[in-house]
Write a structure and sequence with these properties.
This protein has 337 residues and is an alpha+beta fold. Among the domains are: 107 residues, no CATH class; 123 residues, Chitinase A, domain 3 (Roll), CATH 3.10.50.40. The chain is built from 12 helices and 7 strands. Strands 3, 4, 5, 6 and 7 form a 5-stranded antiparallel sheet that branches. Strand 6 and strand 7 form a beta hairpin. Helix 1 packs parallel to helix 4 and helix 6 packs across helix 10. The longest helix has 28 residues. It is elongated and about 90 Å long.
Length: 337
């Protein structure tokens, strides 16, 4: 796999141009080193980046050139510490093979063939496109002040709630089973649990008793949710409660669901700065791209491409309401049973 990726990446990167450059460099060096080619190659010095470590005909490759191209293909790879001698030799052989083949292609004037010319043009366009995109990404980097201001302007987006859920079943997961509790009994059971909690009974004991009876489920420990982490209905209730307060969220033929707000919190800037940075960079990058498109004079044949479809308001939001907490819990219980 490494061999195939190495060869492919080198070809796409336009190694033909590199070969020509290397050949020109060799011509300049040959006059100052007349007769040296006949002598035995000097031993490579690992500390010298300009040490020639590979030759293919008249083309010389330095250690720096070789390792820089390896690092582009295998990011973070250290030729000295990473690959074994066998792996390094295979990479060197791959590199030499690509140079050899590109030299032969140049000798055969293959770069003038329509297909190769097209591929080289596409590769060049892609490399330049990627380079400009990277340049725009750097321009779009938000400053520390911009990140801090965004956080200050959107404080409520980073609120979190610590809630405890109480499910009291009216019917078991299997629809064929009879009811567990009537609607009135389910509400009464939920009221007793809240009263026992207020009297000092631990949530762990209440949870264990409720599960043992088969009548419901109570979170022994509060769960933490950020905005967007709950269903719209549940989120609305959770973020409107006062600490310690209970509220009913759903009452269906299957169960009654109540939640208690244990406490609320807010994620600090240091916890969300990375996400804010990405969002701001994306917005600024899109603005830069839109501006470039306006000034680029882009035209598209609508008969061929079709007309642009206007974005539907809220199209990126949920296309349908997510399953309720009761539905999720019922499905889970059904699998367990």
């Amino acid at each position: 796999m490494i061999r195939a990726r190495f060869v492919l990446c080198l070809i796409v990167a336009g190694l033909l141009a590199g070969v020509v450059h290397a050949q020109d460099s060799l011509s300049q060096n040959s006059a100052a080193k007349s007769g040296s080619s006949a002598s035995a190659p000097e031993k490579a010095d690992p500390a010298r980046s300009d040490q020639v470590i590979l030759k293919v005909g008249d083309v010389q490759v330095t250690r720096a050139e070789f390792e820089s191209r390896i690092s582009e293909i295998e990011p973070g790879a250290d030729p000295d510490k990473g690959p074994s001698d066998k792996d390094r030799h295979k990479l060197g052989d791959d590199y030499a093979s690509v140079i050899m083949l590109s030299q032969q292609a140049t000798a055969n004037h293959l770069e003038s063939s329509p297909e190769v010319s097209r591929q080289l043009a596409v590769a060049r366009m892609q490399v330049l496109s990627d380079a400009e995109f990277a340049n725009l990404m750097r321009q779009a980097d938000p400053t520390t002040e911009e990140i801090s201001k965004y956080y200050s302007d959107h404080l409520s987006d980073y609120d979190t709630v610590h809630i405890r859920r109480l499910f009291v079943w009216k019917r078991r997961g299997n629809a064929k089973d009879g009811p567990v509790l009537s609607s009135q009994a389910a509400r009464a059971r939920a009221d007793r649990i809240r009263q026992e909690q207020a009297a000092g009974t631990s949530e762990k004991n209440l949870s264990a008793d409720l599960i043992k009876s088969g009548e419901g489920m109570l979170d022994p420990e509060p769960l933490i949710f950020s905005r967007g982490g709950l269903s719209p209905q549940m989120e609305k209730v959770a973020f409107s409660l006062k600490e310690g307060e209970w509220s009913e969220v759903e009452d269906t033929p299957a169960a009654v669901l109540l939640i208690q707000l244990v406490n609320r919190d807010r994620r600090q800037l240091g916890q969300v700065s990375s996400a804010i940075e990405k969002n701001l960079q994306g917005e600024k990058l899109q603005a830069l791209l839109d501006d470039l498109k306006k000034n680029a004079g882009i035209w598209m044949d609508e008969q061929y491409f079709g007309t642009a479809v206007a974005p539907v308001p809220g199209a990126q939001r949920r296309t349908s309401d997510p399953p309720s907490e009761l539905q999720k819990s019922a499905r889970k219980r059904g699998k367990q049973q």
